[in-house]
Each structure stands twice: as C-alpha cells, then as structure tokens.
Amino acid sequence: MPDKLQQLTDMFQTFDPADRTDLLLSYADQFKEVPPEIATRPFAKSHQIPQCESDAYVWANRYDDGTMKLYFAVENPSGISAKALAAILDKTLSGLPASEIATVNCDIVEKIFRQNISMGKGMGLMAMVQAVQALAKSASNPRSPIPDP
Amino acid sequence: MATPIEERGYAHPDALVSTDWVEQHLNDPKVRVVESNEDTLLYSSGHVPGAVHVDWTTDLNDQVRRDYITREGFEALMSKIGAANDTTVVFYGDKNNWWACYAFWVFQLFGHTNAKVMDGGRLKWEKEKRATSRDVPSYPKTSYKAKERTDAPHRAFRDEVLAHQKKQGQLVDVRSPEEYAGTRMHMPDYPNEGALRGGHIPGAKSVPWARAINPDEGTFKSAAELKKLYLEDNKLSPDQDTIAYCRIGERSSHTWFALKYLLGFKNIRNYDGSWTEWGNTVGVPIEK
User: Fold this and answer.
1) Is B252:B165 a contact under the CB 8 Å cutoff?
2) Which DSSP category does A53 fall into?
3) Which terminus of chain B has fewer Cβ atoms in its 10 Å neighbourhood, N or C?
4) A119 to chain B nearest CA, in Å?
5) Which CATH number covers residue B123?
6) pLDDT at B190
7) Domain's final residue, options B127, B147, B177
C-alpha cells in the first residue's frame, strides 16, 4: 500500500465518527473535476466506473518517468462519498509510479468510511479503487496502452 | 414541473408536502423536518435549514437484535430531535425518498400519524436551488410519550407471509428484475446482507420500487399513472390484503407508502425480513 494512503487510512481509523465525517467532507470539498484538456462531457462510457451509483468516471495520465496522475468526475450531485474518495485517491496516489499505485487495496474503503458506509455505496466505492488499481496495473506495463476501467 | 400534489388524485394527499410547503414552514415550531439518507455523509454536507438527521441504522434499528427500537428508544429519539406528540414530522432524503419512507414507516409503528413526506426529497430541493445549511440544529428536548410499538397493521413477519402466500394473497416484490429472477442475490463483500437462494416468493408481482417516481425530480407519479402501473399492468387490487418486500424492507417501505397513501390500499404491510430472511429460510417456497 502506498505510504501516503496508508498513513491517511491509519489516521481515519483513529478518528471518532464525528471527526471522520468532517474529514470526509473536507476531502469532498477539495474534489476537483477532470479538467477539459483531459475529458469533456459527454464523458466516454468507457471511463465510467461500473457499479458506482454516483455515476463516477476515472482517467489516468501516465508520464515518461512511470508516474501517474489520476482524474475523476462524479456526475451525481449527491455523490459526496464518491467525491471524497476521489479526492483521497488523487491526493495520496497521483504522482506515484504506476507500479506503486497498483498495490492499492479495496480494504481502504471500509477503513476510511466505517459507519459512513452502507448498502450499495460500499460496492461502488470499492469499484472506484478497483478501477484505479486496474489502470495502474496496466500502466505499470509500459508496452500496454492504458485500458478503460 | 410536477402537477400540484392536491391535483394528482391521491387517496391521502395530506401524506405528501411540497418543497414550497417545507420552505414556508422552516421556522414553524410545530414542524420538525427530518432527513434520512442511505448516504450518511449527505446530511453533514448540507441539509434543509433546521432539519435534523435520523439514521436508519443507528437511530431506528435495535443495535443487537434484528428489530426496530423499542417504545423507550422511540421516546428518546423524539426527545432528542425536539419533536412532541403534536409535532408534524416531515421526512425527506436521498434516492427518491427511499430512506425517508422507511423512517416514515418506522414512525407509524409507534403511531406518530402526524407525519408527511416531502415530495421530491433532496433531489428536488437541490434542483430548485433552495437554501441548505451545514449547521446542526439543537432543539429543546421534549417529553414525548409513545404508544407501545404496534407492528400488526404495518409490518408482516415470515410466518404471516408464508400463510399469505399459501392462500395466494397479493405480494409485491419491489427489487430489481435481476433480483426477482434470482440472477443477482447479494453484493460482493457484503455476505451478511446476502441470501443463500435467489428468486422470489411464488406469486409475487415484480414492480421495482422506483417506477413510482418521476426520475428527473424524484416526485411521485400521479394517481392515474400509479393506478396504471399497479392496478392495470400488474393486476393488484387496493381492496385485497397486500404485502410488499425487497431485501431488508427499505425499498418496500417506499412502495408501502405509495400503495397505502397515494392509491389507498386498505391493508398493505411491509415485510422487512424480506429476501435476506426468505432467501435464507429452510423449506420456504421459492420461484425463479
């Protein structure tokens, strides 16, 4: 697991429910949508994250030095959790080598959201992590094109 | 834009209020607005000013047994949210008021009939760009006196559903067509919410819950549209005893609300055990 994400996950686990909610909201507030130079509406369905009820999309740019930058869009205005997770993934993973990003694990969803996870939401959030992992795994093989999630 | 509630032909239009009505009653001390969501972060991210949060898992469910809170628990909840016996409680939330209807249903187990649902829920309020707030309000505690929880008129249990099914009583399965067909049973990584067998209770009509909603603004469809859906297309009769179910009784509380208040079904109950009980029960009949 990449260090920054591990540290943030550890911090979430020490928080009480109210503080965890505040921290998740602060990440949701920091969410920045994919810039137009990367993608514009209507977003290609091939970048849509399956099973995510918040209608989330993910893109990745791979640089020559092997690092990656992640971009997200969340079309559901009520998709607060998806925005929070997107911001967390971007801030802790972007800039790392793809091979390192590929070690991200779906377990973080439960550890980060705890009582704020329920029903179908967990599946969608884990699908976001899986989509990032799949992009990174593919990008860590320099011969392969970056796949659709 | 949706037709005004009172012009939609509902059996009990008083069970719904509009976003306009709620805005006009934001400072009404006799009204308590309650937000209930699937996404527990949503309330904290901004809510109808003055609205309190009621969470379906922590506030309405017993934390040990699979059951709802007791009379004492309900009294404590009402006291906490500053609602008295004569307070009009207005529910709203995400997902087309799915959880709002669930909370409304639980409140009916305690006989708090002075309750309404805000038509359109969060979606409509947000689309209309009405004010929201992150301030969590605090109201003086009340000394609410609840009746003992009375499940029978609103809630069906497994053995009752079995007897109902045997006599070919009306059943409405409000899950997705895939769940009804038994091709989807559980969510990955959530085995505790799954079931060992897929399919539906024999004889149940498949009417996915959200078909009662106008998806663009989350409002309920008109009585004429609902009658076509439930009475004509699915041959359900408002005069016959009816039981609605889903996976844990949340989506079916939405259908329960639509059938009872909007179409005037005389005896409609929600089977909250639903598929997570039926699909795990030894020996009960299942159809695919």
Assistant:
1) no
2) T
3) N
4) 7
5) 3.40.250.10
6) 41
7) B127
